[in-house]
Structures are given as structure tokens and as C-alpha cells.
Design a protein that fits this description.
By secondary structure, the chain is an alpha/beta fold. Helix content is 42%, strand content 17%.
């Protein structure tokens, strides 16, 4: 059996997954072998040119293939859908098989997000509190699991990981911006989607008064934390996992009003808008714009993703060597590239 640690990445063709893949390869860790689950011949070609072994599967509903692939690896980095509990459990089942067969420690690095900690400031009560990853985030998510599917996925993965003897790490990036260094999708979600809605409306839009506050972090800085944990594992250094294995990644804050105003300014500068006036819309209106691209969204989810408060602080992440390299000013300067 090879002495190399085998790493499996899901979501390598995506925005976060592609950046994480680039980060993994740039670390130059000698004793790891990297594979990626992909769905098409184009993705196989793109991944293979990077020296990564491609494993074909149908998609996240192909749980047998996911389980089988995970059973051949020591570490799985999951950057695919954070909402698909069945696919995530298939990863853990495969890792449990690997642990039993090799006697080695096995690990799941799972991508979630700070929408978990968002409120409903328009339809409900605003929550301006700041959650840190060194507090009892597991306990809070467990108590509030019914309110947001990602919380249920996180806590179920942690509980199942503890049952199977698998070390789990939950990464919670906030609003991510910047061009990904991955081989395929290099575009984020929240801001580009808001730009597209603004184009359809022929002026920048904001949900309500836009008073909600989110943390922002550049995609390269998000990927950096995955590299830190992977390097620690490869060097047999222990990092907090399980109920203590939450990692927040924050690099400043912005309101949704500020974001929409920046869309308005850069949109006018590039000749897309006649004015810098921002139009207020409600959650139902915004949901109708998104329905073709995101058919699972409803007004309540739209309020969380484009209008809520989601304030976090990565104390544990910083204690384990992470710090953002891109400032809040870099975020403000990124809108020209977002338009492009």
C-alpha cells in the first residue's frame, strides 16, 4: 500500500473547490496524492492537466460512487453542495471503511457558510451579534438546526464523524469575492447574482433598506485555511475537529446597501446604468428574478442570502495561523472585475 496520504476533492470544478485545488497544489506537499470527483470529459481533461487524478461520477445523487471513492482516500475535502446531506453521509461512510481497512486517521474538511448564522431582519428581528468560532457553535447549530438546512448538515456530520471515529472540520466562509484561481468556475455567487438582477432592472437594486451586515473575504484567503489544516494533517499535527472544529474566515464587514451602491457606481461608470440611484425591492420581487437560476429559492431564503446580518469572527482560525491578505479596500476595488 502506498505511504502517500490520499486526498479526494469534491467540487473541484466550482468556485471554492477550484481555489482550494489551486491552494493544495501550490503547497507542494510531497507525500499526498490528489484525486477529484468530476462529471464530464471536459472536467477530466482540465483536472488531469494539473496532475490530479479524475474520478467520474454522475453527480451528488450518485451516493454509491461517492462512498466508493471516499473509501479509497484518507482525507476528503468537500466543496460541493453544503445542503446535500445524503452525499455528505456517503463521504463519511466511505471514510469509515477506509479507517477500518488501514487503521489510519481519516478526515473530512467540509465547506459550509456563514448564512448559518444569518437573521431575518425584515420579516423578523435583526440580530447584530458577532459569533466567534471559539464559542459553542456546535451547540447553537444543534439548537437551531430546524431553521436552516446547513446547520442540520453540519451537526449531523459532526455527530456521525464522532460515531465513526472520523475527524471533521467545518469551514464557514462569509460573502466571498474575487476571481477564483480554479480551472473552471471563477465567479462567485452573491454579488454577481445581484449584478445580474441590477442589469435586468437597468439600475442597481437592494433588498429593503440594505442595512444587513455581512463579513467579506477574498477567495484566495478562504482557500488558505483549507491548506493550513491539510498541511497540519500531513505533518501529523492535531487541529481542532469535531464539535470544536469550526473555522470562520472574516476580513471586514460591509452592508448590503454599500454593496449595491458600489454596483451602482461601477455600473454607471461602465455605461450599464444611467444613474447611481439604488432601487429598493422586497424579497418576493428579488426571488422572482432568481427563480430561473436558483429554482429552490424562496423569499425567506433570499432575505437571508441578500439582506440579512451575518457577523462572525475567526478567532480559532487566526490562532491556527490564518489571516486575510486582502483588505476591505481590496473588496471595494473588486467591483470593476466583478462587472467584467
Amino acid at each position: 500500500m502506498s505511504s502517500k496520504t490520499k486526498v479526494l476533492l469534491t467540487g473541484a470544478s466550482g468556485y471554492i473547490g477550484g481555489a482550494v485545488l489551486h491552494e493544495i497544489l501550490s503547497l507542494g506537499i510531497k507525500d499526498i496524492h490528489v484525486s477529484a470527483l468530476v462529471r464530464s470529459a471536459t472536467q477530466v481533461k482540465g483536472i488531469s492537466t494539473l496532475g490530479v487524478a479524475a474520478i467520474i461520477f454522475r453527480g451528488l445523487d450518485d451516493v454509491d460512487a461517492i462512498k466508493s471513492a471516499a473509501a479509497e482516500h484518507d482525507i476528503v475535502i468537500n466543496c460541493a453542495s453544503a445542503m446535500d446531506l445524503n452525499a455528505c453521509l456517503a463521504i463519511l461512510e466511505g471514510l469509515a471503511i477506509r479507517r477500518k481497512a488501514t487503521g489510519r486517521d481519516v478526515h473530512l474538511l467540509h465547506t459550509s457558510g456563514t448564512s448559518n448564522y444569518a437573521d431575518h431582519p425584515i420579516s423578523g428581528t435583526p440580530d447584530l451579534s458577532i459569533k466567534t468560532d471559539e464559542s459553542d457553535i456546535y451547540g447553537w447549530e444543534k439548537a437551531n438546526a430546524d431553521g436552516w438546512i446547513l446547520r442540520k448538515v453540519n451537526t449531523t456530520l459532526i455527530d456521525t464523524g464522532l460515531e465513526y471515529g472520523i475527524k471533521t472540520y467545518i469551514f464557514n466562509p462569509p460573502l466571498i469575492y474575487g476571481r477564483s484561481s480554479g480551472p473552471f468556475n471563477q465567479k462567485s455567487l452573491q454579488i454577481p447574482a445581484l449584478i445580474n438582477v441590477s442589469l435586468a432592472s437597468q439600475q442597481a437594486v437592494v433588498l429593503g433598506r440594505g442595512e444587513g451586515i455581512w463579513n467579506v473575504t477574498h477567495i484566495d484567503d478562504v482557500a488558505k485555511m483549507y491548506g493550513i489544516i491539510l498541511k497540519n494533517i500531513s505533518e501529523h499535527k492535531s487541529s481542532p475537529s469535531g464539535k470544536e472544529g469550526y473555522y470562520f474566515l472574516d476580513a471586514g464587514e460591509a452592508t448590503w446597501k454599500e454593496i449595491s451602491e458600489q454596483i451602482a457606481r461601477t455600473g454607471k461608470k461602465h455605461g450599464h446604468f444611467k444613474s447611481e440611484v439604488v432601487k429598493q425591492v422586497n424579497a418576493e420581487e428579488l426571488a422572482t428574478y432568481f427563480i430561473k437560476s436558483f429554482p429552490f429559492l424562496n423569499a425567506s431564503m433570499v432575505e437571508v442570502i441578500w439582506g440579512s446580518n451575518s457577523r462572525t469572527r475567526g478567532e480559532r482560525s487566526r490562532a491556527w495561523g490564518w489571516s486575510p491578505s486582502k483588505s476591505l479596500e481590496a473588496f471595494r476595488a473588486s467591483f470593476d472585475d466583478e462587472w467584467e
